[in-house]
Amino acid sequence: MAILLFFFFLLFDISRAIPVLDFSKLNGHERAKTLAHIANACEDWGFFHLVNHGIAKDLLERVKKVSTDFYKLEREENFKNSKVMKLLNETGDKKLENVDWEDIITLTDDNVNEWPSQTPGFKETFKEFRYELKKLAEKILEVLDENLGLPKGYIKKAFDGEEGENNAFFGTKVSHYPPCPNPKRVIGLRPHTDAGGLILLFQDDEVRGLQVWKDGEWIDVEPLKNTIVISIGDQIEVISNGRYKSAWHRVLSTTDSNRRSVASYYNPSHKATIAPAPQLMKETNEEWNQAYPKFVFGDYMSVYYQQKFHPKEPRFQAVSAI
Ligand SMILES: [Fe+2]
């Protein structure tokens, strides 16, 4: 991994590349420095690569294999008849505005019976992967608690809601961005910020496409083998009272490659009430500087489904009016 990172830093201007953070260093004498780097990444980028995250390489290799097999066996043929393919073929030179060149399925604990069944090893591998990722997500949330000066478990508890332990939602989106005959006419995934809490993305080793908006330009999230890319969602922006920011990101389509992307999101329960942590609001002139409203996450999602690809600020206004 050290050699890979060396070449990575040689190839790219570090100041314009999303941070690469070593999770294992939280266990050693570099803990304080690593915590500070993670805090900076959450404040400045809302996105970072995590290396040495503790998920076994063998499991990651199996996830890649079953995802690719799954697309070939169970999705490729369908995509040829998809709505977006038809639109691209039937609309001349017109740029397509309201669609994405993307194939998706969503895995949750509640729809296991609907998970792909024809691809050998898919269910078993994804059950194991999701178990490991969820544990990792909870460890990262505790790091965020610590960096924000919140009691250990604060964010998880907020996400669980009043119904108690383990009610936070954990979903996994398995996406493919197949070769596109005309990437200028349709994007892989339109720009958006992530609605939920913490997003753990296992992206393609080789095929580029993901970009993050930073200081007025799109920055590539370079493929870096077996890292997990972390994205801060809107709910952590709210709980942190704006100290951490969810970042705009998008996926470009490409002509010659099929990009694989597995995004898992650790979100609040739909019934959970989300608000800025009182510890992160300062009292000024007898008023609290609360930068975000208090709302029920399910209400936020109702707004998000309508406005996902719009600026996020009006979403906060809309949900506070519910
Ligand atoms: Fe996203």
* Helix coverage percent: 25-40%
Distinct ligands: fe (ii) ion
Number of strands: 15
What is the typical, i.e. mean, pLDDT? Answer: 93
Per-chain topology:
Layout: H1 2-11, E1 20-22, H2 31-44, E2 47-51, H3 57-80, H4 83-90, E3 103-107, H5 122-148, H6 154-160, E4 169-177, E5 189-192, E6 198-203, E7 210-214, E8 217-220, E9 228-232, H7 234-239, E10 249-251, E11 259-267, E12 273-274, E13 283-284, E14 287-288, E15 295-296, H8 297-307, H9 313-320
Parallel strand pairs: 1-2
Antiparallel strand pairs: 2-9, 3-4, 4-11, 5-10, 6-9, 6-11, 7-8, 7-10, 12-15, 13-14
Bound molecules: fe (ii) ion.
Fe (ii) ion (FE2) binds at residues 192, 194, 249.
What features would you highlight for this structure?
Jelly Rolls; 9 helices; 15 strands
Can you put this structure into words, describing what you see?
It is built from nine helices and 15 strands. It has 322 residues and is α+β, with helices and mostly antiparallel strands. The strands form four sheets. It has a seven-stranded mixed β-sheet. The chain has a four-stranded antiparallel β-sheet with strand order 5-10-7-8, with no helix packed on it. A hairpin with a 2-residue loop joins β7 (210-214) and β8. α2 (31-44) crosses α5, α3 (57-80) crosses α5 and α8 crosses α9 (313-320). The model has no long low-confidence stretch (mean pLDDT 93). Bound molecules: fe (ii) ion. Fe (ii) ion (FE2) binds at residues 192, 194, 249.
In brief:
With 322 residues, the protein is an alpha+beta fold. It has helices spanning 2-11, 31-44, 57-80, 83-90, 122-148, 154-160, 234-239, 297-307, 313-320; strands spanning 20-22, 47-51, 103-107, 169-177, 189-192, 198-203, 210-214, 217-220, 228-232, 249-251, 259-267, 273-274, 283-284, 287-288, 295-296. The site of fe (ii) ion (FE2) has 3 residues, from loops.
